[in-house]
Structure formats: C-alpha cells, structure tokens
Amino acid sequence: MVHAPGPTAEVRLTVLVTGGAGYIGSHMVKLLQERGRRVVVLDNLSTGHRDAVKGIEFVEGNVGDTGKVTALLEEHAVETVIHFAAYSLVAESVADPVKYRSNNVDATLRMLGAMREARVGRIVFSSTAAVYGEPRESPIDESHPTQPINPYGAGKLVIERALDELHAAQGLHSASLRYFNAAGADPGGGLGERHNPETHLIPLVLQAASGRRASVAVFGTDYPTRDGTCVRDYVHVNDLCDAHLLALEWLEDGGGRAAFNLGSENGATVMEVIEAARRETRAPINVRVEGRRPGDPAVLVASCEQARRVLGWSPKRSDLATIVQDAWRWERSRAAHPGA
Fold first, then answer.
1. How many CA atoms lie within 13 A of 172 on its CB side?
2. 152 in active site
3. Is there a single domain that holds both residue 174 and residue 317?
4. CB-based contact 176:311 (threshold 8 Å)
5. Separation of alpha carbons 54 and 45, rounded Å
6. Residue 261 forms beta bridges with which residues?
7. 81 touches 159 (CB < 8 A)
C-alpha cells in the first residue's frame, strides 16, 4: 500500500522532475529552485538539453529503467514526482505508434512501479488536451468525453486511467494536468523552445521573423472561424509551471486524484498569431497557404474553472501579446547564436 505523507508524517523535501531538461520541464525546475525546493532531474536527453538545468542534481537515464528509478527515489528521499518525460508530436505518434506506446505508456507504467517500490505516494502528471479528441463543444471542460484520435492522446489517457486505478487500489495521489497549447519562454530570456524539428506555431512564426526560416505554413483557410484559420488556446509556459506547483501543494495538503485543464480560455486564430508576431517583431513574415491537415479541429479552447476552483490557479502571462514578446526575446537570442 502506498500512502502520501500526512500532516504529521516526516516530510520528504525532494521533487523528482522527469524530462526536466526539456522545454516545460526546465522552466519547472527553475521555478522549484526559486521556491527553495530540492530538485533532482532525470532525463535521457533525447529531446532535452543538459545546459537547460544548472546547479542541481542531474541523472541521465530513462524513466522505464525500474531499478535506476527506484534507487534514485530512495537515495534522494523523493516526496513527489513531476512527470514530463514523454514524446509529444502528434504526427509522429501516428507514423510510429510503437515508439509512443513504448515510451509514453510502458516506460511510465514501469516508473509507477518504481514509485510503489520506493513508497513515493504523489505524482503530478503532464497530460494533454489531446485526450478529448474531436471537440463536441467549446470551451472544453473536464467532463467532456475522452475519445483521443491519435496515439499520443491515447497513450496519455492510458496513464490517466492507470492513475485512477492506482489511487483506488493503492492510495497513490495524483493530478493530471491537461495542457492546451504550451507557448512562450522564460521572461528572463534564459530558457525557451528548442525542439528539433520544431512543430509549434509560435516559434515557427518567430523563426520566419528572425530569418531562420523562409516562411511559415498555414494549414487551411476555410475553417468555420472568424478568419478561416484554426483557433487554438495558447498558455504561457510559466503559467503552466505555476499550475504544477499549485498541484504539488494540493497533493501535499491531502488532494487525492483529479484532472485539470490548463489554458488561457481565449482562442487565437493562426492568422491572429501571425499578426501579433508581425506587430511585435516589425517583420513581414512570409506565409504560404497549404491544405488542411487531417484531424485538425476548427476550434480548441479550454475551460479552466476546475483549476481555478480547486488549485486557485489563473494564468498571468497567457495573453497573446505577452507570449509572443517572451518567445521573441528567446528567438532573437537563438538567432544571434546559431547552434547554441
């Protein structure tokens, strides 16, 4: 039986951040350090960057290595796991579902087994709005049916259901955070998106503005939206990290098991993102129009009422102008130091 420490139990101070060298993970590590938390990072560096996490204990390895993870949890007296380590490209998951099943599902289940072995009773799980599939309504709240349409979303839902079962059977306390579109960068300019290949709209648009990319593709201009392009809900990476910290504190205060949407609750069209980037960068930004991509819904916007009510969370930097400003600061530093 796994139990989360109660109010009078000895408090374990360490948080294990898996995937902590990645985009969102590295911002989370920075926030935890600022709040005085002891942090250990586990990352295999398949998509993360070692230089994104400095001044903390770093272990290179895979979350599916049960022996290594168990030893790590025990050695550092880990209190809670914040689990970011996953592949996250929808198109790649469709092309290579075995890769996504192996890493995002099988390896995570082995990690959960290691947590049980080490008697770690809390986890904050990085999930996704892709668990919902095609939206039946907008905005989407947590009661929306979960019917994912790609292996990426399906794998995240498998883990969410496993967390439900582990809470009922073993007392594992967990929060699943369902992101909409993570965006932006650390306002200080030291962290941001470094995906290879890059697939997210805002960094692609800003790469076109900086000259690192000739143009940006717009996939479909005939959707039933205000300008014919898809509407998405962008949430600042720092706001996401604030939500993780609040979820961690909620679990420490006795929270049991819940899922929370994280978004801005305001949708922006693809063309509105491009226009916001043009205003901020004062660059023309060349656009090429291509056909719709299969499986792209017209509108995806979050309802975050549950996160507000239970966690006390609300986004602070998720207006589109601020997201673009912070991401542009990061892109300019990247453009000035290619290969960094």
1. 28
2. yes
3. no
4. no
5. 14
6. 178
7. no
pLDDT score for 55: 87
Token output for 17:
């951040």
User: What are 233's two structure tokens?
Assistant: 């809900």
List 23, 100, 132, 152, catalytic entry = 152
> 119 with 219, same domain?
no
The letter for the amino acid at 254 is: G
166-215: per-residue pLDDT in tens?
999 999 999 999 999 999 999 988 899 998 888 899 999 999 999 999 99
Task: Count CB atoms within 10 A of the CB of residue 170.
Answer: 14
d(CA 243, CA 204): 26
**Percent of the chain clearing pLDDT 70 (strictly above):** 95
Is 2 a member of any domain? no
CA atoms within 13 A on the CB side of 7: 2
pTM beyond 0.85: yes
pLDDT digits (tens, 9 = 90+) for 91-141: 899 999 999 999 999 999 999 999 999 999 999 999 999 999 989 999 999
Domain region containing 307: 201-233+265-336
At residue 86, φ and ψ (nearest 5 deg) are -165, 150
Q: Is 175 a domain residue?
A: yes
How many CB atoms are closer than 10 A to CB 102? 14
